[in-house]
Amino acid sequence: MLLGQPRKAVTILEHGLAAWPAPYQRDLGLNLARLAVAHAADREPEQACAVGQEAAGIVSNTWSARATTELRRLPALLAAWPDLAPVAELRETIAALP
User: Fold this and answer.
1) Were both Cys, which of 24, 30, 62, 82 would link to 67 (CB 3.0–4.6 Å)?
2) Is the pTM here over 0.85, yes or no?
3) The three-state (H, E, C) secondary structure of the chain, written as one string
4) Over the stretch 57-86, which tens digit does the pLDDT of each residue have?
């Protein structure tokens, strides 16, 4: 993402998450949040919302300031799709995070 290549970021993150060790839930939440941001930057709002909701579920149970910061980037990245129901739902979920 830092290099402005969200599609590559999606591929790399998906590959890494495929073999993620179950005990590391907090880091899983962070990396799912990063994947959601990459999907949003790659103009894939439905994928961004689905992954963002998954990340938010983990974050609400494990609390991670870094993951929350990543998730809070999503509403601005998804602003181009205000009429999509998943976007509105994700905004509400993110707003409810501590």
Assistant:
1) 30
2) yes
3) CCCCCHHHHHHHHHHHHHCCCCCCHHHHHHHHHHHHHHHHHCCCHHHHHHHHHHHHHHHHHHCCHHHHHHHCCHHHHCCCCCCCHHHHHHHHHHHCCC
4) 999 999 899 999 999 999 999 999 999 999
